Amino acid sequence: MIELLQKSFPKQFKGWQSKFKEMMPGYGVKLNENPDLAARLEADTAKALQLDTVNASRG
């Protein structure tokens, strides 16, 4: 979906990136290189979806 916006609105897209980052903290981040952020996002998602907490480092 983000790629569609980027292709459809190339001039505006650069100005929108900070808003994407605000809405999606993992946007533009390689989560496999940032395990702390990955774990936080996983926990936040589980909470929002009212799921049991999961362990991101479960091997």
Characterise this structure.
The protein has 59 residues and is an all-alpha fold. It has one domain. Helices cover 59% and strands 0% of the residues. It contains three helices and no strands. It has helices spanning 2-8, 10-23, 35-48. Helix 1 runs antiparallel to helix 2 (10-23). The N and C termini lie far apart (30 Å).
Key terms:
3 helices, mainly alpha, single chain, 59 residues, elongated
Total helical elements? 3
* Count of β-strands: 0
Radius of gyration: 14 Å
Largest sheet: none
**Structural class category:** mainly alpha
Unreliable spans: none
Helix content: 55-70%
Distance between the termini: 30 Å
Oligomer: single chain
Q: How many domains comprise the coordinates?
A: 1
- Element-by-element helix/strand order: HHH
**Percent of residues in β-strands:** under 5%
Give the overall silhouette.
Answer: elongated
Task: Summarize the SSE layout with pairings.
Elements: H1 2-8, H2 10-23, H3 35-48
Helix pairs in contact: 1-2
Summarize the structure.
The chain has 59 residues and is mainly alpha-helical. The protein is built from three helices and no strands. The protein has one domain.
